[in-house]
Amino acid sequence: MGAILEVKNLNKFFGKKQILKNVSFTINEGEILGFIGPNGAGKTTTIKLILGLQSINSGEVYINGYDVTKDFEKAILKVGAIVENPDAYMYLTGRKNLELIANMYQDITKERIDEVIRLTGLEKRINDKVSKYSLGMRQRLGIASSLLHNPNLLILDEPTNGLDPEGIKELRELLIKLTKEEKMGVLISSHNLAELESFCTNVCLIKNGSVITTSSIKNFKKSDKSYYIMEISTVKGISKLLGKNDNIVDDTHIRVLREKEDLAKLIKDLVNKDINIYSVKLVEMTLEEAFLAKAGGNIID
Fold first, then answer.
1. How confident is the model over 140-155, as pLDDT tens digits?
2. Model-level pTM?
3. Which backbone phi and psi does 236 adopt, to 5 degrees?
4. Which residue stretches of 189-286 are H helix?
């Protein structure tokens, strides 16, 4: 099977300012792609172009093989999307909200409504008014409404905004479940990098409208430089040996970011200062640390 979503060389201008520059990435069945970048990098604009909410200046978007520009209705047929917090009729029950949305489509059965209620874990609260739902429950209802028509691509823009840790945990478990049970692909844009790391299979980093890299989470976190925890006899008098990304953990431990050759030099410098080195332990980068290293900090150039 081909890719569910193919984004090829997207370019977007607002007046004379170029917002997107040859943005390209793909999503296959069962993949959850974390779309990350500094504020103003072009994430939401890219999502709007994929969904046909803004015009494409040049480039192509294919969903299930259909060109969004040339064959919009067929392309968008199997797409579910939530941009920020989903809207709902607060004075109606969750079930009534789903029934109203189901009326907008053809041939959505009561059985399908019951199925998405089960998929999203809303069984116990579906007959309560939405006004009584937590933000996390409303997010689940929004995802349930986007699943009614059996999409195989789910697009979420900042879905964790305003969610408490429990709500974020529920969303994470739901997305993992959907990719397995519904054989979906998911595109999720979020600033919550620690959370994305726990469930995304791949990541695409965009900065200043250009894709810096697209890879698996594991490969994204690989770098020429690595973090090390070093246990030493004392941290006194070592400040001049530390770089801007290094820090003193406590009286006998430091955390340093080094290439192997630089690590060897640091060890030699510490020994020359009569400081004993008891252990050096490699520490895997977090997604956030890898993001900051590759994006050069959370800034807009």
1. 899 899 999 989 999 9
2. 0.80
3. -70, 130
4. 193-199, 217-220, 260-272
